[in-house]
Amino acid sequence: MNFTAPESLIFWTTLIFVVFFILLKKFAWKPILGAVKGREEAINDALESAENAKKEMQNLHADNERLLQEARSERDAMLKEAREIKEKIVADAKELSVVEGDKIIAQAKATIESEKKAAVADIKNQVANLSVEIAEKVIKEQLSNKDNQLKLVEDMLADIKLN
């Protein structure tokens, strides 16, 4: 086989390519495909988790809206009841005296305010409980992986060293 320079170059290039291709196929192809497949699964899992979190946030939003609507209806009922009480108190106050009427109206307003504050405090407690539950779920998810736990501990130790 007597080759000229270009033919020799083509022969050796083809031979090196074939050997390189066989080596890649034998040693690197499966690990590369495995890594790509693992990355694809991780991305799909992350997308599914994001979708679940989105659905959960929508559910929480709907619950919050329902709670707000209930609070509004309770407030309206309380205001209606307070108006009725006020009208009765005003009628009684006109019979007794203007001074006594002012005293009763002040007491009614204080009662309305305290009930309003109690309702707001109850809503705040419910929202706080929901927030704690969400935070707990997020932290559990973040700390479910040992690597994430180790990173968190290292970050905390770094913060302590900085202080």
SSE inventory with pairings:
Elements: H1 5-96, H2 98-142, H3 146-162
Structure report:
- The chain crosses the membrane at residues 6-24.
- 94% of the residues lie in helices and 0% in strands.
- By secondary structure, the chain is an all-alpha fold.
- It has one domain (5-162).
- Helix 1 (5-96) packs antiparallel against helix 2 (98-142).
- The longest helix has 92 residues, at 5-96.
- The N and C termini lie far apart (77 Å).
Q: How many DSSP helices? A: 3
Mean pLDDT score: 84
Order of helices and strands: HHH
The largest β sheet comes out as: none
Q: What's this entry about, in short?
A:
GO terms for molecular function: proton-transporting ATP synthase activity, rotational mechanism; proton-transporting ATPase activity, rotational mechanism. With 163 residues, the chain is mostly helical. It has helices spanning 5-96, 98-142, 146-162.
Give a quick set of tags describing it.
transmembrane helix; ATP_synth_b/b'su_bac/chlpt; 94% helix; 3 helices; rod-shaped; 0% strand; 163 residues; CF(0); ATP synthase subunit b; mainly alpha
